[in-house]
Structures are given as C-alpha cells and as structure tokens.
C-alpha cells in the first residue's frame, strides 16, 4: 500500500471516529473509542445494522401498500343537505306486456296452431290466419315466457314472415299507461307525469321516473334513428305539445322522511291479460341513478299485485378527490367522466359501460342485438328465431364459469371500472298486502256511511 493510500485511510478513519463520537444519532457513539472492547463495538454495530434493515423493510411495506391502493375511502366530515341531491330514478316494468283488447294473442295463436297441425296431417296448406297476424304474434312472443323459444315451437316454421316494427308494435299493444299509473305524485310536486318516460329495457316496455332525456343519455350521431329508447310520457303523437323545456330538469329531493315521499299507484287489470303470454304478475322495480340506463336483469325489486311496497332510500355518495387524476385509473380503481368515453352513452358509469360491453359482445356473438340495446343503423335487431342468442350472450358475459379462459374474458377487456363519483342507494323495503287490510273490517262499512253518521 502506498503512503498516499495509507494517509487516506488514516484520514477517513479519523473522520469516522470524529463523526461517531460527536453524532447525535443514538448508538453510533459506541462504535469507536479506545476504552471500549471490540465485543461492545461489534454488538452495537450489529444492533444498528439490524435496526436499519428493519426500517428498510417497513418502508418497503408502506411503499407497496401505497403502490397497490393509493386511494383510501374516508367518511366526509361535512354533511350535505339532502335537498342538494337529485331524486333517484325509478323504473317500473309491468309483467303484463300485452293487452288482449288490442290483439287477441291467445285466440290467434291457438287458431294458427290448429290449422298448422291440420295442414301437416292432411298435407294441404290452408292457413287462414293472415301474415299480418302471424307477424304480430311473432313480435309478441319476444315478450312471452321462455317456453316459446324452444326450437320445436311450430312458429319457427313461419320464419319467412316478417315481424312488424318491434318497438312500435310492442308500445301499441302494451296496457295503456295512463290507466296503469292512476296516481303518481309527491308532496312537493304533484305533476309527476312530467318526469315520466317510456323506456326500453331488456324487460320490454318500462316506465321510468326522473331519468335524463334520450339526448342527454346517448350520442345522437352514433345511434340509429328508427326508434327512441327514452320517450317522454306524452310524446306519442296525439296532443300534448312538448312544453317549455322545464321538464328536462330532474326532480330534486324535497326533504327527508315520509313527508317528502313520492308515491305511485299502479293498477293491475286481470281481465286484460293474455293468459297464454304471461311471465308472472305484478311489476319489477329498479331504483337507480338518473344517468344510468336501467337494466332490470341485473337487479330489481318484485312488486306483486295487491301489495304496498314502501322503500326507504339511504344515499351513499362516493366522491373522488380531483387530485387523484394524476394516478392511473387502474390504481385508483375508478374512472373520471372523461377518461373512458363510451360509444353510445354520453355519461360514464359502470352500468352504462357494462351495458355497452354486453351490446358489443352480443353483436359479435349473434350478429344482431336485442331491441333495448343501443345500436347503429348498420346493426339489426334480432328476429324471433335468433332471440335466444342475446340471452345466452348475457349469461356468457356476466356469469363467471368455474373453468374460465382468462385470455378470452370479454368483460375484462371492456374495462368497466366504477365511476369516480357515484351514488349508490341502500334500500329498506317494507311490503304488506292489501288483502289483509280488507279482512280487518271496521264497524262502519263504507265511507258514505261514516259521512252520513257524522252529518246527523
Ligand atoms: C279472445 O278470443 C277468445 C276465443 O275466441 C275469446 O273467448 C276471448 O273472449 C277473446 N278475448 C278478447 C279480449 O276479445
Ligand atoms: C284441408 O284442410 C282443411 C282444414 O283446414 C280440411 O277441412 C280439408 O278437408 C283439407 N283438405 C284435404 C284435401 O285434406
Ligand atoms: C346509416 O346512416 C348513414 C348516415 O345517416 C347513411 O349514410 C347510411 O347509408 C345508413 N346505413 C344504413 C344501412 O341504413
Ligand atoms: C384460451 O383461449 C385461447 C383463445 O381461444 C386459446 O388459445 C387458449 O389455449 C385457451 N386457454 C385455455 C387454458 O383453455
Ligand atoms: C364497443 O365497441 C365500440 C366499437 O367497436 C367501441 O368504440 C367501444 O369502446 C366498445 N365499448 C366498450 C364498453 O368496450
């Protein structure tokens, strides 16, 4: 070793000794000192080294945790008044899709069945039911129970006969909504039909309360022009001009508790039901955000006839601080409005994204889509003989099979994370039946009797 190097080492060790004896870091002092034994020095060095390693591991863990989940959910300390919120949308789907006063489906279907059967037996083809009626029946069967979709159904021998414009026809044969919703109102606003729209869902024709309009929901330039997905309650041709645009506003929450209740009175007409085309009785109800396009197959509440359903809502508002925009969406596990543009929907939220994903998947798998799915003018709506395909596509997309091929996971590719600001509603449901009420008879029979007694 040269003199220079020796000098360097001596200088460095002097510096180290000086640093150690003067440092305020605990323990370092014991590394040096002529009076201390090597054993003590080594012990202290080991302890110091171990604590450094311990710190390092903890820092690593903290970093990993932050890296995996940089977002923490906390309860907001600032309460928000409830009247700043928009009232949620309520979508009600009657199970009865076809009124027998418009088209006697049972009668026509049975006649056709009989005649077809005879024609098969006697090898002559005298079928008196006209093509128009057969087309209508095929349109109606889209809504009937799944049994009709059995591929042995004789109606599939009439595949060459065209169906009428499905949506228009189904709107025409549905029960008159003004008779179905006899009352709808709230303490704050009694003109509740102003907020009602006719919506197309996978359950057919439904009625949505307090949802945004078609123009706000969809990109009009991509969508076909054949029919509308959301139509104002009064926009069906006759009378009632679309008024000054005040109706475009959504209803705000008027307050809390039963005082701010919104009520619907729905009437069921047992005599108008076509008994061969029923899937059940009553209604399906979905409560959702006004910007979400309803999908009743995902979740719904069943309301049967002669029942009162009371639903208390507790909003769960989730907001994401704008500072998190600098993290990737995968890290924060949510999308801000502009980050994941959808093709058909203007507004991003998880449900709309999944619906669009389902539409893409259905189109890819079947070559056609269900009429309630948004589509371009180049895409056709599935005909009756293909109608089983969208149902299967749905099951295939959303139901995770045990042995699933991950490389082929379409839903994952759609990347439908939740929206960064969203409202979820926790529901408290009470249900009671009217029939019990009727059993408890009061001593005074009718209201008129009571009135007469009071006036005496
Ligand atoms: C439908 O046709 C059947 C058989 O002809 C008949 O009994 C029934 O009353 C008809 N229904 C209506 C609402 O016209
Ligand atoms: C053809 O069918 C009708 C019933 O629709 C039947 O009355 C008639 O006898 C049949 N004709 C022949 C030749 O089988
Ligand atoms: C779809 O719409 C575009 C633009 O309006 C039009 O050019 C095109 O021919 C339409 N396609 C079909 C299949 O109708
Ligand atoms: C998953 O699907 C892809 C494409 O269909 C295929 O190439 C691959 O072998 C499949 N993997 C498994 C484990 O089945
Ligand atoms: C559906 O397909 C269209 C066109 O291929 C695409 O632009 C859109 O992003 C797709 N939607 C989703 C949710 O993946």
TrEMBL record:
This is Uncharacterized protein. Keywords: Ion channel, Ion transport, Membrane, Sodium, Sodium channel, Sodium transport, Transmembrane, Transmembrane helix, Transport. Gene3D superfamilies: Acid-sensing ion channel domain. Coiled coil: none annotated. It comes from Anopheles dirus. The keyword ATP-binding does not apply. The keyword S-adenosyl-L-methionine does not apply. Its main location: membrane. The chain crosses the membrane at residues 38-59.
């Amino acid at each position: 070793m040269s003199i220079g190097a020796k000098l360097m080492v001596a200088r460095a060790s002097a510096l180290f000794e000086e640093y150690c004896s003067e440092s305020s870091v605990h323990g370092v002092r014991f590394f040096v000192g002529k009076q201390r034994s090597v054993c003590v020095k080594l012990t202290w060095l080991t302890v110091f080294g171990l604590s450094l390693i311990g710190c390092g591991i903890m820092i690593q863990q903290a970093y990993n945790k932050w890296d995996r989940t940089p977002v923490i959910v906390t309860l907001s300390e600032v309460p928000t008044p409830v009247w700043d919120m928009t009232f949620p949308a309520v979508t009600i789907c009657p199970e009865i899709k076809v009124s027998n006063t418009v088209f006697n489906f049972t009668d026509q279907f049975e006649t056709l069945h009989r005649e077809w059967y005879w024609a098969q037996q006697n090898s002559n083809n005298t079928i008196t039911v006209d093509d128009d009626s057969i087309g209508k029946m095929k349109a109606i069967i889209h809504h009937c129970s799944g049994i009709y979709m059995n591929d042995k159904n004789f109606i599939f021998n009439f595949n060459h006969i065209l169906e009428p414009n499905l949506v228009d026809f189904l709107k025409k044969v549905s029960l008159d909504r003004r008779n179905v919703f006899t009352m709808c109102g709230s303490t704050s606003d009694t003109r509740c039909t102003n907020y009602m729209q006719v919506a197309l869902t996978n359950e057919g024709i439904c009625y949505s309360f307090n949802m945004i309009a078609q123009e706000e929901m969809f990109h009009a330039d991509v969508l076909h022009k054949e029919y509308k997905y959301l139509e104002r309650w009064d926009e069906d041709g006759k009378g009632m001009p679309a008024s000054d645009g005040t109706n475009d506003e959504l209803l705000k929450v008027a307050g809390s508790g039963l005082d701010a209740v919104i009520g619907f009175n729905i009437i069921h007409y047992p005599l108008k039901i076509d008994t061969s085309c029923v899937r059940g009785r009553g209604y399906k109800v979905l409560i959702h955000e006004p910007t979400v396009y309803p999908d009743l197959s995902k979740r719904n509440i069943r309301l049967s006839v002669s029942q009162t359903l009371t639903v208390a809502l507790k909003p769960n508002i989730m907001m994401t601080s704008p500072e998190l925009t600098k993290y990737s969406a995968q890290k924060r596990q949510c999308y801000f409005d502009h980050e994941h543009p959808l093709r058909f929907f203007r507004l991003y939220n998880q449900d709309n994204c999944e619906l669009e994903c389902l539409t893409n998947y259905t189109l890819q798998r079947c070559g056609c889509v269900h009429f309630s799915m948004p589509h371009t003018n180049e895409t056709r709506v599935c005909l009756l003989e293909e109608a089983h395909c969208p149902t299967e596509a749905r099951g295939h997309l959303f139901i995770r099979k045990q042995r699933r091929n991950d490389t082929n996971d379409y839903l994952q590719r759609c990347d439908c994370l939740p929206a960064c600001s969203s409202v979820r509603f926790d529901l408290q449901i009470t249900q009671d039946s009217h029939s019990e009420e009727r059993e408890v008879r009061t001593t005074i029979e009718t209201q008129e009797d009571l009135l007469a007694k009071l006036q005496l």
